Amino acid sequence: MFKKLLAHIEAFIDWSGRTVSWLSLFLVLVTFTVVVLRYAFDSGSIALQETTTYLHASVFLIGMAYTLQQDAHVRVDIFYAGFSRQKKAWVDLVGAVFLLLPFMLFISWISWLYIADSWSVLEGSREAGGLPGVFLLKSLILVMTFLLSLQAMVQIARNIEIILNHGANG
Questions:
Q1: What residues does each domain of the chain span?
Q2: Smallest Cα–Cα separation from 73: which of 96, 49, 90, 56?
Q3: pTM for the full model?
């Protein structure tokens, strides 16, 4: 049952990452439109410009857990690349338990009032003609910490399994 839960969590994170990646295409199209409007027609739209910020933030904040799942985060792996599978599991386990999860807890804690204040006034853009949902954009911070924490827990379980299986096989 536990393995099934882990598989469902991984499938959800995979789905969310693949889904949000499509926003990148939309981001390119919106950015292209902003540039054409500005330079070809000497016109612009604050809402359209802010849309690029919303899309960019959404791709990064929601896509972080997927990137971690795919082991695609940037890292300096001078030593890590040469490690055995078990040593990599140890490094990833320690990193998830002592760095990633505490950092996600810290980010959640320090951003909670920031986001709650934004929701309390249903914060919108400070610019005339801007987008009204700044409070929703800020909420993506908590979505990011939740998804990354879920992925960290999956990694912890998977790495413990690798370590224990190696011990049983070795």
A1: 2-169
A2: 96
A3: 0.89
